[in-house]
């Protein structure tokens, strides 16, 4: 590139240009969030901690069938109940466990659930369901799925037993996950 | 690089065997490369893979067709949207389902956003491996904005599980298109900023020009696809050759490199990010309305037969080959992984280079071990 | 000075303690500033949890390294393994004995000079001592019995040696202008000449600083500890206090290069453009800033540029680094040396 | 409907002329039907290039599948590459039809021709422990793909430069993608979590492993 090219190559203009870019970033707004004090707010369709309500569940096993990794274990039995004179058989739920430590929160169980409002849904705000001890604490039985013992709900979110509805945007899954919310 | 014998000052000095990885900061996952070094010059390189093999194709055989979709998120975990697109595409092809235009548009939006997100990871880690620390944080800042858009649409940031056979499970939330437009409008300025940091930087050029060269003929012979192929000058992109999801409606160019070295592949990917921005802008401009899901039975049972379908994933041609026996579970579902086949050309590209160049070449191939090991 | 005991024992001892403490504190807080400034360049905040807004981070790091388990690799050469860090830190701290931080001034009636000694061969002493550091790196790399660290050690040996030459040449151009080896006299010469040497010796200044970056294995040239290739280069196998020594030595060397650059090219403790300014603006404000503050200000500017480099530039490959050293810097500094020599000859050497 | 292949117009003869033809996604999907494709242009080309090698040809969902004779695969491959221009071997895999008497495995090659962007699927049937000639001579890219098929199915490829396992580790016995390989995995003897698993080693076939 000739002598002058060699000399010109000595003066690093483009390196200075690079320095300019990083220099400008010195004064730009920072992106860090101080996590424990400031908690990031998930979006309204975030697939977070499970919500479950036993009354709405019609024990049809479709959520267990839809789950790709079969971590929803359901056991039920039939009971005779009297409904206005006629003998009717009704399915009663014995066991409804979700092995949350293996769950990948794909949301297929919620999509498969035929009940309206949903019996099993993914809440959109609570994501802090970690535990120190793997096997017990993250193996959610029917009771724990409802009263959320051992789950640190996001501020303002109540457990399903205390009335969290699936279409409640702060806690439940946005009803609009299916259709655009009115 | 000239023949290596001439370079051997001490004829009796034997070569040094080094195992590079699988725990190594620059192998983008659990890849191990057995290196035979003469001093710092690589005499031979032999990639060893399989550390992340989870038997995905075996698991596919027990899942329902919609149940396989979360597993495809974990193949190329930096590009979940295009993995989903390929899987649902092949099942729709074998069932003869036509997807409504709005579903195609949403898929194109998700795929192109995913292409940008995947390329930002590539640029961040590639620059970090070659020593420039800051681009990593700038690129990931932009990627966070894309992940927010994904989270808003389907509820997950990385493993999206956002498509179903026959269309999209849910429609775009209100205001999503505006937020997407604001992101896309400011993105080219960010890419220009990164280019000011790297493209003309003499150290970057010294580390990438002429490194890991592969000729066009060799690239086709080695079955390279995606940016590694286009970097060597072969103008070939599935979105143009076999348009899917109505890609023929959008006009965009296919960036092509000249001499197939790391610098050209870098330029190709940077240009691809800009082209993706153009596609998204066009898609947002004429977003069709209407249903997002075709009439598809609840339990997907494709007819007996086989079909292959591929998409242009950020890494190359990602194909799915499904064989159905008429049941609700795929009889055989094979993944044609882009990175697995691109990695095969690594020894050819690296022979005779220095150890530092191996890092640059691994970065430029943009490999993800999830897709390689399946 | 009244009795020799005080003059030659007590005062130097106090100075030594003060300078050593200052350097160690600067080096420790350099690591903190580096992490903070780098973070601010990368849209993040950096350490802000330890102590108020993170200010106690370096103390925490030091304590951590103190109590950390000190693993010695199995078949390492024990003695040489321990010698490595010592050989790196000692020269780095030794060099501070000759660096003049300010002019002599009165303190409680005594004449106090803010530098330890004024050796009349100051520059020679500095170049000689700072090249001993190379041994520490090579021995450390070789003794830790690890392929990667040996490669790191060999790489840094070649790099340090080959960048010593252009650095020396660019320093010689300053000596031509100041025709004295003693650092104090160099600053005095710049004061009389009324112009800092970085203006006539702009090329020498640029080469000196870039070679300084290479000497301390800093960013564009940080091959020996290139994380991506050699995992951590020569100090891979070191842990605990020995690793802290390498860490301290790196930052101390950075401070050394910055302070020498300040003395040689930016006129040590002189306020900017000593006589022009005073004549033209008669700025009393600038006059009362103590000379030591000027010195620290200029040194801090250099340290900031170090960190700025680290945040921006990719890394040279090893052979490119050697090419740059031998094929670009040495010829250019030679030509520059001759040019300045000619200049000094013509102008008659003020 | 993607134009990935010859656009065969789906035969949707509307029973009665509806007011406006409902868009295809509103109606039941038109499932493709396999047709015999002997006269297909691509198949005739191959039959001409390698007489006698073509056993059967099927067109399904717009993609042509040609079943060729196992012994002459390299010859067919070379013909496809040199004369017919299929320079790009996109994919090579296998399918295990467990209860098929004559040839248990299908080895499937998926070729691509750059000239007119046309794709073709070659298929051959091979039994257990029967060798298939390796096509690495024709397409270099087949190296790893064949190694993966060997690793997963146990099909030997004669003439392969280094036919060894690629995804599972050397000591692994068994071929995972065979239909008779248990989904839960086999006892590999690998001392995985010695404190959790019995001295026999890894997750026992069918064991919960917890």
Describe this structure in words.
The complex is a heterotetramer of chains A (182), B (374), C (350) and D (210). Chain A is α+β, with helices and mostly antiparallel strands. Helices cover 23% and strands 19% of the residues of chain A. In chain A, the strands form two sheets. In chain A, strands 2-3-5 form a three-stranded antiparallel sheet. The termini of chain A are far apart. Chain B has 16 helices and six strands. Chain B has 374 residues and is mainly alpha-helical. Chain B is 47% helix and 11% strand. Chain B has one domain (16-373): Cytochrome-c3 Hydrogenase, chain B (Orthogonal Bundle), CATH 1.10.645.10. Chain C has 350 residues and is mainly alpha-helical. Chain C has one domain. Helices cover 68% and strands 2% of the residues of chain C. Chain C contains 14 helices and two strands. Chain C has a two-stranded antiparallel ribbon with strand order 1-2. In chain C, strand 1 (105-107) and strand 2 form a beta hairpin. In chain C, helix 6 packs across helix 7 and helix 6 packs parallel to helix 14. Chain D folds into two domains: 35-158, Beta Polymerase, domain 2; 180-210, no CATH class. In chain D, the strands form two sheets. Chain D has a six-stranded mixed sheet. Chain D starts with 34 loop residues before the first strand and ends in a 52-residue tail after the last strand. Chains B and D meet through helix 2, helix 4, strand 4, strand 5 and strand 6 of B and strand 4 and helix 3 of D.
Strand content of chain D: 15-25%
Enter the CATH topology name of the largest domain in chain D: Beta Polymerase, domain 2
Number of strands of chain C: 2
Which structural class should the secondary elements of chain C be placed in? mainly alpha
What integer value in Å does the Rg of chain C equal?
21 Å
Radius of gyration of chain D: 22 Å
The total strand number of chain D stands at 8
Number of helices of chain D: 3
Largest interface by residue count? B-D, 54 and 54 residues
* Helix run count of chain C: 14
Q: Report how far apart the termini of chain C are.
A: 34 Å
């Amino acid at each position: 590139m000739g002598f002058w090219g060699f000399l010109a190559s000595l003066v690093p203009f483009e390196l200075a240009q690079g320095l300019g870019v990083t220099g400008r970033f010195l004064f730009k707004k920072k992106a860090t969030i101080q996590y424990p004090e400031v908690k990031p707010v998930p979006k309204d369709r975030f697939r977070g901690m499970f919500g479950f309500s036993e009354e709405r569940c019609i024990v049809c096993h479709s959520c267990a069938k839809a789950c790709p990794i079969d971590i929803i274990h359901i056991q039920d039995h039939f009971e005779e109940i009297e409904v206005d004179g006629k003998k009717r058989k009704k399915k009663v739920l014995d066991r409804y466990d979700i092995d949350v430590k293996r769950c990948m929160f794909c949301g297929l169980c919620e999509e498969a659930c035929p009940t309206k409002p949903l019996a099993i849904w993914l809440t959109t705000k609570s994501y802090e369901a970690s535990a120190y001890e793997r096997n017990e604490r993250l193996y959610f039985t029917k009771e724990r799925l409802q009263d959320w013992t051992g789950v640190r709900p996001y501020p303002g979110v109540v457990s399903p037993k205390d009335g969290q509805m699936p279409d409640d945007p702060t806690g439940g899954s946005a009803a609009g996950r299916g259709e655009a919310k009115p | 690089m000239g023949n290596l014998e001439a370079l051997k000052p001490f004829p009796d000095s034997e070569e040094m065997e080094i195992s590079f990885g699988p725990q190594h900061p620059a192998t983008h996952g659990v890849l191990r490369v057995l290196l035979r070094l003469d001093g710092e010059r690589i005499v031979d390189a032999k990639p060893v893979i399989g550390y992340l093999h989870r038997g995905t194709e075996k698991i596919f055989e027990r899942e329902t067709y919609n149940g396989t979709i979360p597993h495809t998120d974990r193949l190329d975990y930096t590009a979940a949207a295009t993995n989903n697109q390929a899987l649902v595409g092949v099942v729709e092809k074998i069932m003869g389902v036509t997807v409504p235009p709005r579903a195609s548009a949403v898929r194109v939006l998700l795929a192109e956003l995913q292409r940008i997100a995947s390329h930002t990871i590539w640029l961040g880690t590639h620059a970090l491996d070659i020593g420039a620390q800051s681009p990593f944080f700038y690129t990931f800042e932009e990627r966070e904005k894309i992940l927010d858009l994904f989270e808003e649409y389907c509820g997950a940031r990385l493993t999206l599980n956002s498509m179903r056979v026959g269309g999209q499970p849910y429609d775009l939330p209100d205001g999503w298109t505006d937020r997407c437009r604001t992101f896309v409008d400011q993105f080219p300025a960010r890419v220009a900023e990164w280019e000011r940091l790297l493209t003309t930087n003499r150290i970057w050029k010294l580390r990438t020009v002429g490194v890991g060269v592969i000729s066009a003929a060799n690239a086709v012979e080695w079955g390279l696809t995606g940016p590694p192929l286009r970097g060597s000058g072969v103008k070939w992109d599935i979105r143009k050759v076999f348009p899917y999801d109505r890609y023929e409606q959008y006009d965009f160019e296919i960036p092509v490199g000249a001499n197939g070295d790391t610098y050209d592949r870098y330029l190709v990917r940077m240009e691809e990010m800009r082209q993706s921005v153009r596609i998204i802008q066009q898609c947002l401009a004429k977003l069709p309305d209407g249903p997002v899901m075709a009439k598809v039975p609840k339990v997907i049972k494709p007819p007996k037969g086989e079909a292959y379908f591929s998409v242009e994933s950020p890494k190359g041609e990602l194909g799915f080959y499904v064989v159905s026996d008429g049941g609700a579970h795929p009889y055989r579902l094979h993944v044609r992984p882009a990175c697995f086949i691109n990695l095969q050309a690594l020894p050819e590209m690296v022979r005779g280079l220095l150890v530092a160049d191996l890092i640059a070449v691994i970065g430029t191939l943009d490999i993800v071990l999830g897709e390689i090991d399946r | 000075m009244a009795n020799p005991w005080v003059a030659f024992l007590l005062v130097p001892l106090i100075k030594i303690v003060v300078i050593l403490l200052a350097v160690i504190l600067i080096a420790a807080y350099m690591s903190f500033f580096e992490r903070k400034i780098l973070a601010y360049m990368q849209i993040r905040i950096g350490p802000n949890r330890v102590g108020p807004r993170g200010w106690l981070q370096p103390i925490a790091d030091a304590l951590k390294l103190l109590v950390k388990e000190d693993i010695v690799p199995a078949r390492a050469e024990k003695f040489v393994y321990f010698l490595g860090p010592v050989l790196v830190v000692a020269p780095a701290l030794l060099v501070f004995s000759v660096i003049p931080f300010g002019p002599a001034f009165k303190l409680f009636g005594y004449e106090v000079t803010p530098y330890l000694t004024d050796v009349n061969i100051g520059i020679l002493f500095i170049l000689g001592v700072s090249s001993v550091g190379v041994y520490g790196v090579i021995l450390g790399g070789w003794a830790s019995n690890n392929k990667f660290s040996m490669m790191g050690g060999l790489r840094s040996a070649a790099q340090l040696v080959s960048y010593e030459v252009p650095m020396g040449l660019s320093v010689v151009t300053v000596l031509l202008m100041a025709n004295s080896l003693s650092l104090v006299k160099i600053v005095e010469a710049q004061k009389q000449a009324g112009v800092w040497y970085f203006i006539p010796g702009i090329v020498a200044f640029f080469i000196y600083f870039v070679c300084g970056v290479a000497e301390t294995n800093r960013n564009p040239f940080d091959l020996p500890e290139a994380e991506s290739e050699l995992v951590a280069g020569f100090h891979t196998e070191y842990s605990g206090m020995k690793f802290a020594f390498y860490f301290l030595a790196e930052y101390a060397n950075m401070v050394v290069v910055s302070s020498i650059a300040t003395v040689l090219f930016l006129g040590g403790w002189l306020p900017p453009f000593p006589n022009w300014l005073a004549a033209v603006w008669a700025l009393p404000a600038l006059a009362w800033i103590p000379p030591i503050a000027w010195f620290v200000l200029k040194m801090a500017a250099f340290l900031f540029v170090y960190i700025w480099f680290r945040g921006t530039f990719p890394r040279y490959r090893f052979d490119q680094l050697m090419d740059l050293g031998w094929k670009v810097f040495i010829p250019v500094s030679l030509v520059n040396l001759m040019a300045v020599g000619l200049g000094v000859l013509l102008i008659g050497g003020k | 409907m993607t134009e990935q292949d010859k656009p065969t117009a789906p035969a949707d003869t509307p029973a009665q002329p509806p007011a406006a033809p409902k868009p295809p996604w509103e109606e039941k999907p038109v499932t493709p039907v396999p047709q015999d494709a002997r006269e297909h242009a691509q198949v005739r080309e191959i039959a001409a290039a390698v007489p006698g090698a073509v056993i059967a040809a099927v067109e399904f969902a717009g993609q042509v599948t040609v079943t060729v004779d196992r012994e002459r695969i390299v010859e067919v491959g070379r013909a496809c590459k040199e004369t017919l221009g299929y320079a790009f071997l996109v994919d090579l895999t296998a399918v295990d039809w467990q209860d098929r008497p004559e040839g248990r495995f299908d080895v499937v090659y998926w070729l691509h021709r750059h000239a007119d962007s046309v794709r073709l699927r070659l298929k051959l049937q091979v039994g257990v422990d029967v060798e298939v000639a390796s096509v690495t001579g024709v397409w270099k890219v087949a190296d790893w793909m064949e190694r993966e098929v060997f690793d997963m199915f146990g099909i030997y490829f004669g003439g392969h430069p280094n036919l060894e396992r690629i995804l599972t580790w050397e000591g692994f016995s068994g071929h995972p993608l065979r239909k008779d390989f248990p989904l839960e995995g086999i006892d590999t003897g690998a001392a995985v979590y010695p404190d959790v698993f019995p001295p026999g080693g890894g997750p026992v076939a069918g064991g919960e492993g917890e």
